[in-house]
Design a protein that fits this description.
Layout: H1 7-17, H2 21-24, H3 34-46, E1 51-55, H4 58-69, E2 76-79, H5 85-93, E3 97-100, E4 120-121, H6 133-141, E5 145-149, E6 157-158, E7 161-162, E8 169-173, E9 187-191, H7 194-204, H8 224-252, E10 259-260, E11 268-269, E12 275-279, H9 281-284, H10 288-302, E13 322-323, H11 346-354, E14 355-358, H12 366-382
Parallel strand pairs: 2-3, 2-4, 4-5, 5-8
Antiparallel strand pairs: 1-9, 6-7, 6-11, 8-9, 10-12, 12-14, 13-14
Helix pairs in contact: 1-8, 3-8, 4-5, 4-7, 10-12
Length: 384
């Protein structure tokens, strides 16, 4: 069993509880206590940005960033059809309209169509793979406001440009399964735009201090204790990323031939939140779904203790550590169907049909990884 957190995180929480700023942190212009402000600055600096505005989740970060950037009154916002639901839901919550644009077949990230230009875009760095920096650069040169969704790709880089620093702002999630966490939930917006950062702060905290503001405020604050935990996690980030990459590289070298690992160009530094592969049904002679069914049965059969997998804080049912990934494109989700484009996104549709995900979280032991690979190969041998 791998220990998730160390004494540093625990001691940081205890120290924060004993500090007076825990109670008085938001009386100083509602900017938070000294620990929270330090956490914001450290995280922003780590991503080559001047300002950080912490919030209580990555979803809140998406919402706040859009309101602060001017999304409202049915404003079209370009989004990829392959992403977590919050990317789309918060466009709608902000008053905007999601405008779907296909993904790149190699990176699975947004492949923006400049023929259908919008004023706002949320490129998603998917599964730890950064979006194309040149694409984001061109977006900005076209006077688009670019909100990078970095929830799945902390520490990833393209052409040595780290995610979160490419667009006008970047949003991150500190939910439990992400690269670092602030006690289970949390998020942040980073930017080099001081005026934008100020707007985000006002929206985050009711706008009570900013009496002349005309933007409705909310309560999306992160606590001082969470920030203290996050500061300790930041110090661990290089090691955390190293562990993710180590697990990913080991698995990619040991996959059966029916599963293709992601293609990673030399100018990409992938952060591997999840290992997104492709399943070749023609090569295996069995559909992905049937293969996963057999895999689940074998997992029950071959593992002596089938509930040992505790990767995300949950005891996964057998076979759920390896999955088919995203079940559908976002525009086929019932709530979002009215925003469905006239032409389906071909690459996104293919991704849904062929994706094969492996959870490679740093909390997985080498023994557990080897067990999963053994069962994967055993299942592959059975269908030959």
């Amino acid at each position: 069993m791998i220990k998730r957190f160390g004494k540093e995180e625990i001691n940081a929480v205890i120290k924060s509880i004993n500090k007076a700023s825990l109670l008085s942190g938001y009386t100083n212009k509602f900017l938070g206590g000294e620990v929270l402000q330090k956490f914001e600055k450290e995280f922003a600096r780590l991503h080559n940005c001047k300002y950080g505005v912490s919030v209580n989740s990555g979803t809140s970060a998406l919402f706040v960033a859009q309101l602060a950037s001017g999304v409202k009154n049915k404003t079209k916002v370009s989004v990829p059809p392959i992403t977590f639901t919050a990317t789309i839901s918060q466009v709608i919550a902000s008053g905007g309209i999601p405008s779907f644009t296909d993904i790149d077949p190699q990176s699975y990230c947004m492949d923006y169509d400049f023929k259908n230009k919008t004023k706002f875009a949320i490129p998603v760095h998917l599964l730890g793979h950064p979006c194309n920096f040149e694409m984001i650069k061109q977006m900005k040169e076209s006077d688009m406001f670019v909100i990078e969704d970095c929830a799945q790709a902390m520490g990833a880089k393209h052409k040595n440009k780290i995610v979160g620093s490419m667009g006008d702002c970047g949003i991150f999630s500190f939910q439990e399964t992400k690269h670092i966490t602030t006690l289970g939930e949390g998020g942040i917006i980073i930017t080099n735009n001081e005026e934008f950062a100020e707007k985000c702060r006002r929206i985050r905290n009711h706008g009570e201090y900013y009496k002349d503001d005309n933007i409705v405020g909310f309560n999306f604050r992160l606590t001082e204790i969470q920030a203290a935990f996050g500061l300790a996690q930041i110090k661990r980030l290089p090691k955390i990323l190293k562990d993710f990459r180590k697990n990913a590289n080991y698995i990619m070298k040991n996959l059966p031939e029916i599963i293709s690992p992601p293609i990673i160009p030399k100018d990409i530094e992938h952060s591997f939140l999840i290992l997104g592969c492709k399943y070749d049904a023609k090569k295996s002679g069995l559909s992905r779904e049937k293969f996963l069914e057999k895999l689940t049965k074998n997992r029950k059969k071959f593992l002596a203790n089938e509930q040992t997998s505790d990767i995300k804080g949950l005891n996964f049912r057998p076979g759920k550590i390896i999955s088919s990934g995203y079940k559908t494109t976002q525009y086929n989700v019932p709530l979002y169907r009215k925003y469905r484009p006239k032409n389906k996104s071909a690459n996104a549709e293919d991704f849904v049909k062929t994706s094969f995900f492996l959870d490679i979280h740093r909390w997985r032991t080498q023994t557990e990884i080897d067990e999963e690979l053994r069962i994967l190969h055993k299942t592959n041998q059975e269908i030959k």
